User: What shape does this take?
Amino acid sequence: MLMAAIGDVARLAGVSKATASRALSGRGHVADATRRRVEAAAAEIGYIASPAAASLVTGRTMNVGVVIPFVNRWFFGEVLEGIEQALLAAGYDLTLYNVGSAGLDRDRVFDFFLARKRVDAVIAVGVDLTERETASLDRREKPLVSLGGSGTGGALLSIDDRAVGALATEHLLHLGHTRIAHLAGEGASTHPESVHGCRREGYLEAMAAAGLASEADAHIVETAMSMPGGYTGALQLLGHPGRRPSAVFAASDEMAFGAIRAAERLGLAVPGDLSVIGVDGHEYAEMFGLTTIEQYPGEQGRLAVDVVLHLLGEDVVADPLPDSGAPLPTRLVVRSTTAALR
Amino acid sequence: MLMAAIGDVARLAGVSKATASRALSGRGHVADATRRRVEAAAAEIGYIASPAAASLVTGRTMNVGVVIPFVNRWFFGEVLEGIEQALLAAGYDLTLYNVGSAGLDRDRVFDFFLARKRVDAVIAVGVDLTERETASLDRREKPLVSLGGSGTGGALLSIDDRAVGALATEHLLHLGHTRIAHLAGEGASTHPESVHGCRREGYLEAMAAAGLASEADAHIVETAMSMPGGYTGALQLLGHPGRRPSAVFAASDEMAFGAIRAAERLGLAVPGDLSVIGVDGHEYAEMFGLTTIEQYPGEQGRLAVDVVLHLLGEDVVADPLPDSGAPLPTRLVVRSTTAALR
DNA sequence: CTGAAAGCGCTTACAG
DNA sequence: CTGAAAGCGCTTACAG
Assistant: This one.
């Protein structure tokens, strides 16, 4: 079956290709009767415009690239779903680049895939962009929105990770805990600007404000932001009977779940012997009864799309855009894994 | 900064656009010296071909559409990462369509997004495709590869879900269990062709072969393929003290994790009071000591890409393609959540 | 409101 | 091995 082209539609409707194009795209004026005739003709032969031909002349691809280091961590999966839905609703495609830390793949994505004229804009999720990377996008005049990562250039959307770290720690302090450990994400100490780094900073600040700075230093373990990561890290922390903490602030809920299982394995009751607080509002948090600081990644993804569409000059954005620089919302949810020190 | 076009490269190298094109694409013969000159010119001005212009003439987009119902279930996330890596390595983009069960979004994806000439092929993961959907792709002559879903048309890659269900059940039978429950995925009984349906069939077959058909009927609960789903389902199953099962076959590892937590909550020891077996080989399985039937979703994703590339006529496929119709590999891994009935 | 024409940036027969 | 020319399927000034 041959694919119908706009010439076929024009012929069937008895108009020129120019008029057919205007009628179908809604750009430029067309008489109502003509428009209806063209639309009927297009429907009859199942015409759909070739995106390649259209973008060759308009320079727009109706396509947004998403760079994301994980798909399988809860936070990232939720963000991705939110982005996908919002993009689909706006008629845009989503091209996925699942690249993490530095490496050949990452360079390839920025130098080849994103440098081509195939995406109109880029959303980077949880990626700490280098100068070179943002400059490359900038040179191609591609709008960039970063969600929860660090880097210059582009719009930056993020929660206040430092405040989150401080709040989680203060919650435990106010329950009377002083031996408070922190399960931090890998690279937290070497990358103070990163998400992990900021949460760690918040923890250190709150501990220092309570006069527990030296206590804090001895109680940080860096590990993968996953359940096994939290499990292993917590085992390490809780194995030291003499200096065993009475509370743990985990940098993510998945790590917190792992810490809970580690406590169970060691015969420690939660929250009787150990209080645990996480960050995220993971879908499993309720099942674990986990006290956590919720964030709303699906919503964050949709918001990133709103900002991108705005930067692309689409004025269809219904929701108000956030004040630039204002942190994204979070909320402390107290459940049954934290309790007063006994 | 103006984007360099192939004409600029040609001028700089002192050749025609045709020769520049041939030198850069590797199609057609070009003298070695000429090729080097063209390549140097391209590098100098940072030339990258416009995909829109190229695909307008070749009809190829170097882009594969992936239709997937979840991003945030372990199996699907792993498959997606596998697909992404393999596609990136082959120079293809991945356009993500995160659509689940029937609905407006799903129709929109098939009728509008996939119907346009923007993808060269489609990989459908865990989607039960309708006649209409496969016909639509077929009409556009887009190769289709289905991974672990049902549907006619296209290549179909999948593990033998019926055999997996039977093997899991037989493992429990051979340990002496007779009161074996099954946590099935939603829709297992109404969609016998689906992944959930086949695993349920395997369970029923094995139970019937052991003369326990009536036992089986009373012990199936359908629930979401997630940890909370397994938790709720298991609570329902284990709450009945008189008819309490001594073993549970969960249709996924995430459900199995939920079942383990449910048992703990009810004061039942695993495996002392309850044996649990799952399916997947989830990254958390080892931490839970879970007995499971492993499958290899990342590998499955890469394989789906190999098949797609083959269908697209790319002969760069290194790995041998599987025998058509042969089930994908699985493996029983016995850990500490299953034990002999005491 | 509508049409004829040019052009977006490539690739590919067709000659040579 | 290389070049001139046509053409992929659209959209958009430019006229009218």
In short: Chain A has a mean pLDDT of 91. Chain A touches chain B through 51 residues (CB under 8 Å). Residues 74-89 of chain A form the longest helix (16 residues). The longest strand of chain A covers residues 180-185.
